Amino acid sequence: MKKHVLTMLISSAFLLTACGSGDGGDSTYVVDDGIPKNNIVNPVVRVESYTDIDSDVNTDLDAVSASKSLMTYKMLGVDGTEVDATTLVFTPKTVAPANGWPIVVWAHGTTGVADKCAPSALGLGQTAELIEELLDEGYVVVAPNYEGLGSAGNHPFLNLKSEAFSITDAVVAARKYLKGQLGKNVSDQWVSIGHSQGGHAVLGAAQYASRAQLNYKGTVAIAPASNLAFILTAGEVKASTLPLAQQIPTLAQLDTYTALIVAGMQGYKSSVTYNEVFKNDTALIAPIAETECASDVADYLGGSMYAYATDPQKGKGSLSGYGRTQSGFMTLPVINTFLQTSSQPGLAKLNQKVFIYQGLADTTVPYQATDILVQSMKANGTSASDIQYTTNAIWDHGTVYTQNYASFVGNIDSLLK
């Protein structure tokens, strides 16, 4: 059962604005659109050479990358102050065009909120294949870890603005480093692409793109997380119809996302306690989300459920008496605000092209949530002509990403023509 839960979460770990120009420089300065502009004078803290822990992946990247770096940079954090964050930066071996290499941001899926869960520490895995294709096309690739991953503090999991500023500020810092310190020819054009949590992040970056004060061109969002209250509620309903062997990993996945949300709030101004969200059985386990990665959190949560359900004196083959989430926890003011606004993309008009991919067989981000997202985007002013929504009955949460590399690169090429 533990292996089954682990497999479920590893597969789901893929999960869970306006346009400006010029170079960025005081984070508190706000212009007409209400978005603070990046006016950080010295955004680059330090730059180190990066080697992926997967030697096979690293060899592939070596063939197409002129440099691979881990950059620590300044960003505007979730509490409104400048904090350090980290990002990977890759440069291509191709000759830069006259107007410079464009920048493509890759936004990763759910890994956890602890430092050791940063993709730069875990390894790039399948992401390396897409990065390789983008480098081969002649793009600089910037791949942020997000606020709090590989840097101080917990990662504010699925906080839209935090993810967005992790992206915009990484683009500004990377461009300044490549142009100013290395003398590379880098364009002011940039786009973003992300999967699951990363799809959520790039929709946030689209909303807050004017912070970078560069030439933002559009985004590709793959199975983007959204409408979290719907996903959690629908997941509960589905789990209630499943046999125990399938019910436990489904509930463990849902509780992992909830635990990561609570863990990501710890140490910040907007926060709740674990006991406010979880009943005792789960509240005792959930804090490991601050120190362990998503798959391990799911193992602990699922393992505890399994132990209870199979105990002849406790569960007697059922989870009916097991303490998971508190009744009505989603109505807690902090959680309700998070679910309805702080985590929700599509509430503001987007002015550039958005490509959205969604698998109808996806059980992590169900297609119904993305349908609601697209409807909301249109209702909030994003032109229907700027949204290209592609679905497929066969794609699940993983294959919607792994089967469409060529399409993604083609979409990015079209944005950067």
Automatic annotation (TrEMBL):
GO terms for biological process: lipid catabolic process. This is Alpha/beta fold hydrolase. The lineage of its organism: Bacteria, Pseudomonadati, Pseudomonadota, Gammaproteobacteria, Moraxellales. GO terms for molecular function: triacylglycerol lipase activity. Residues 1-18 form the signal peptide. Keywords: Hydrolase, Signal. It comes from Acinetobacter bouvetii. Coiled coil: none annotated. Pfam families: LIP.
